[in-house]
Amino acid sequence: MNPIQVLQRELAPAVVVAIGGKDLSLVYDLQAVILYKQKTGDSLFQEGTFAKINPQEDPERFAACLWAGLQRKHPEVTLAWLGEEIPFGPEVNPLIEAMTKAVTAHFPKAKAASPNAAAPEETPAQEPQEPPPPLPMPVELKRSAASPASISG
To answer: How confident is the model over 20-33, as pLDDT tens digits?
Structure first.
């Protein structure tokens, strides 16, 4: 790795999240993208992936995405530990917001138009590159009047 790559790796945009009483840094670099794909079979670069990362509908996929983003700065964090520490319900919203911010921090930024650029009619049309939509926020969980002992499943 050359010195510029080392510096870029160390200065990778990180978003701090609080989990289990610890402040942890989320970084979604190429390593995180690869780790997420290894755990889920999905690529963070594929359209529609973010719609699947929902703590209510697929908590395993959500935890895998969170875990992958923590590995650059916190390789000691395990999925088992996250499973014990991730809140469920509306309390998970700050994690969702932080994951969205951290993932989009690594997406390519739109380049400013060059003064030497071709006239618009000479430039082939291209789809604009936009960051993915934010991860879905969980709905407020309503507590049932039934006691935990009476719930089966």
So the answer is: 999 999 999 999 99
Determine the residue type at 140.
E
CA distances from 34 to 6, 43, 69, 90, 144 (A): 19, 8, 10, 29, 40
| Among the listed residues 107, 75, 94, 105, the one whose alpha carbon sits nearest the alpha carbon of residue 135 | 94
What pTM value is reported for the model? 0.65
DSSP string, 9-78: HHT---EEEEETTEEEEE--SHHHHHHHHHHHS--TTSTTHHHH--TTT-HHHHHHHHHHHHTTT-TT--
Distance CA 77, CA 71 (A): 7
